[in-house]
Design brief:
There is one protein chain. The chain has three helices and no strands. The chain is extended, with a radius of gyration of 18 Å. It has helices spanning 14-21, 26-47, 75-88. The two termini are 26 Å apart. The longest helix is centred in the N-terminal third of the chain and has 22 residues, at 26-47. Residues 90-120 are annotated as: Disordered.
């Protein structure tokens, strides 16, 4: 695997590895990266005013409308999908490899099992 940020651990599960490598999770990685950047800017602004002071905590997102294919997105869709995954499962780590490298193909057949990260 490639280098990882200090103080972080690689995901232990097949599902976790899929999130950091599979193209279908690219949007999730972009959102996570944007969230980390936003937190950093928020912390900087808390110390000293930045150009983003008017925007931070304003709840004004008109400048960033949803674009295709997500323009019909609703937060309830995310919640309903989470409930479905929680009840029915999303990944099966016993599937056949789809990349020839021994990585099982995620398939919607098993209930996710929480793993301990040692945090908390």
């Amino acid at each position: 695997m490639s280098a990882k940020p200090p103080g972080t651990a690689w995901p232990r599960s097949t599902a976790g590895r899929a999130c950091i490598t599979k193209p279908e999770y690219a949007d999730l990685r972009r959102v996570y990266t944007a969230r980390v950047a936003a937190e950093w800017i928020w912390q900087q602004d808390a110390r000293q005013a930045t150009d983003y002071r008017k925007i931070i905590n304003s709840n004004d997102v008109k400048r960033w409308p949803l674009r295709a294919p997500h323009q019909g997105w609703k937060k309830t869709d995310v919640f309903n999908r989470y409930v479905k995954i929680f009840k029915e499962g999303e990944f099966n780590s016993a599937g056949k490899s789809d990349d020839g490298g021994g990585t099982p193909t995620p398939t919607p057949t098993s209930t996710p099992t929480p793993t301990s990260t040692g945090a908390g």
